[in-house]
Amino acid sequence: MPFSVDAGDGAVDTASGPGVRVSVSADPGTRLGPGPRRWAVEATSGVVDAIAGAVGEGVLIVAVEANVSDGAMVLVRRSRVRHDLTVIAPGPGA
User: Fold this and answer.
1) Nearest 5°: CA angle at 64, between 84 and 38?
2) In what helix (H) or strand (E) does residue 92 lie, and over which residues does it extend?
């Protein structure tokens, strides 16, 4: 699933490791299967993969937090996006 956060005129601060954290959740939570829900990455946009869970409809939430330096200080920039989510049963042979 895609993620992004606006860093403005700043650059991602990597002094303490990857400066961008991505997390995904679903409502209901059963729409996500087993696997990672959080990632530490270096880019302010990209794609992460999550495993689909139980069949049905819900909402997927993608939250991104980035430590961004403007040269004088480090700011935290945040983005939170909600997506309608439909998990369908795999077809024959899947």
Assistant:
1) 85
2) none
Report, in angstroms and rounded to the nearest whole number, the Rg of the chain calculated over CA atoms.
16
CA dist 48 and 26 (Å) reads 15
Secondary structure of residue 81 in the 3-state scheme: strand
CA 36/CA 78 separation, integer angstroms: 20
Alpha carbons 68 and 36: distance in angstroms, whole number? 24
**CA 69/CA 20 separation, integer angstroms:** 12
Q: Output DSSP code: residue 54.
A: S
pTM here is: 0.87
pLDDT for the residue 91 = 77
- The full set of domain ranges for the chain reads 2-87
Alpha-carbon distance values, 33 to 29, 42, 79 (Å): 9, 25, 23
Kindly tell me if the per-residue pLDDT of 82 is higher than 90.
Answer: yes
Average pLDDT over residues 12-16: 90
Q: Which residue has the tokens 């939430």?
A: 61
